[in-house]
Specification:
6-stranded mixed β-sheet, alpha+beta, 153 residues, Aminopeptidase
Amino acid sequence: MFDNIIIRKANESDLEDILALINSPEADNGTAMEQRDANTVYQSILDDSNYFQIVASTEEGIIAIVTLVIIMQMTHEGSTTAFITDLIISEDVSESAEKTTIASDLMQYTTNLAEEYGCYKIIFNNDYHQALIESSGQKLGLEKGTPSFKLPC
């Protein structure tokens, strides 16, 4: 059991923990980019005001991440769409109920952030933990089998 889980935006010191999660067999088949390349990509993510890595962290380190990208649109009167992807939860989180709670907390935080950015719609696309993304999305109002839902205006 993990106590005192904090959901927050990632910062510069989180790269090593994030790479460890990406290196897990459940993520990109245990492969991650070279450290030099990872530093460059990660810095560009941190510098982009519309791109976020959201993490679930404990005193021991980061146990889960999800990515949020805010997309500007010419349609819908220039409003924004949230794209949520890459939910990855550490293999150290073994209990199904705990994974569900962590995924739901990450998705709630991410959805709230999307609302702050005025997003009218959220699109989910995830290669990992598909069942967790679906159950978390349903709790937030996403209908099963649909990749997106509109936020209340």
